[in-house]
């Protein structure tokens, strides 16, 4: 079992108040829903997210609380029923604020990051001039209001004891896992075959396998419940058979760089030293299985000797992985009636017990800050990431935070868009689900825009984008 999150209060000494990010970053401000909406498109993705998808997610959360009413009563008596009513009324108030574009309000419930969130609201206010009024849902940067919304859901729950540890998204995350069973079995069967034969694989076969599992981890990112507005988005087909047809949909493919970095580490590594790969996780369910399968291969192939995983400290963007999801999934695998799934689950539990897989929590991952200010806001986390030989950032939200969710030109180099965030060689692995992409060739974006106006937000295309010494 991965250790429960260290007491978060122990983390807050790592925070410093953020006045504003580096001046160069201010040249391009993250776009708000309104500014994207007013860019002539009646419903930009950001606008539609705030206007339609988030209210839908809130309604589903309210419905989930309602459906657990009896359970709360059985567990906690009248107090449980009262708590359920209170949480529902807080979420309904949140939905109304959002739908009527009310000003963003400070957090009131004491939690490890309450002050830093309220400082960030003041910072957002400082960016507005007097006639702009207050930060608002449709006016403030999309990245901020979307993160704020999920943190408000968490506040509503922690204000409703004794159900203050309830995860309103757990059912959807678990359902995604169960509905993806066939694909998970296929993937685990494949991994067991590879691990059994691994001693006999030559360099090219290892490389092919590494590339195969990287692509599976990429396409696993399509299973995303916040994009689907909380509707099911499990993996129904056997993804291994579709990699060849999906390959042209990879717009930036830096897998060769990852291979040469890790094989270099392996060749030059002395007996006792380590090669550490950090994986900043995204969604639980099928995507998490693809990440754990990749992590298993990294150890089995000796491309790495230690994997560190980062999850979310609170329920986040519907499907994101918390430590409870991480432990629950490994337990489900271990207890599965499918022998390959149970073999994987047992192996993964052993990796954790041996300390070769390490699960880490940090509240920074559920703050609204872009990653280029991490070294100021969470210097302890930045120092931790600097210990890695390679960091894999999974998913679209991480990509938005890596690039500051700014309206960069499509051809701006990824290194520039990182705006000084270089803790270690890193790779963004994301399917495109937001209106931001950098590091493309001249004319490449125009080619997709012409044929598919929504190419940036359907999750159809993906990137494996590397930044580091070549
Ligand atoms: O990080 P993930 O799970 O790949 O995607 C997060 C996401 O679903 O949330 C936002 C839409 O609400 C977008 O950034 C993106 O579509
Ligand atoms: Mn996610």
TrEMBL record:
Its EC number is 2.1.1.-, 3.1.3.-. Its cofactor is Mn(2+); Ni(2+). This is Sugar phosphate phosphatase. InterPro entries: ARMT-1-like_metal-bd_sf, ARMT1, ARMT1-like_metal-bd. Keywords: Hydrolase, Manganese, Metal-binding, Methyltransferase, Nickel, S-adenosyl-L-methionine, Transferase. The keyword Signal does not apply. The gene is LOC111158718. One of its GO terms (biological process) is methylation. Pfam families: ARMT1-like_dom (PF01937). Gene3D superfamilies: 1.20.930.60, Uncharacterised protein PF01937, DUF89, domain 3 (3.40.50.10880). GO terms for cellular component: nucleus. Residues 49-446 form the Damage-control phosphatase ARMT1-like metal-binding domain. GO terms for molecular function: fructose 6-phosphate aldolase activity; fructose-1-phosphatase activity; metal ion binding; protein-glutamate O-methyltransferase activity. Subfamily III proteins have a conserved RTxK motif about 40-50 residues from the C-terminus; the threonine may be replaced by serine or cysteine. SUPFAM superfamilies: AF1104-like (SSF111321). Metal-dependent phosphatase that shows phosphatase activity against several substrates, including fructose-1-phosphate and fructose-6-phosphate. Its preference for fructose-1-phosphate, a strong glycating agent that causes DNA damage rather than a canonical yeast metabolite, suggests a damage-control function in hexose phosphate metabolism. Has also been shown to have O-methyltransferase activity that methylates glutamate residues of target proteins to form gamma-glutamyl methyl ester residues. Possibly methylates PCNA, suggesting it is involved in the DNA damage response. It catalyses: beta-D-fructose 1-phosphate + H2O = D-fructose + phosphate; beta-D-fructose 6-phosphate = dihydroxyacetone + D-glyceraldehyde 3-phosphate; L-glutamyl-[protein] + S-adenosyl-L-methionine = [protein]-L-glutamate 5-O-methyl ester + S-adenosyl-L-homocysteine. Belongs to the damage-control phosphatase family. Sugar phosphate phosphatase III subfamily.
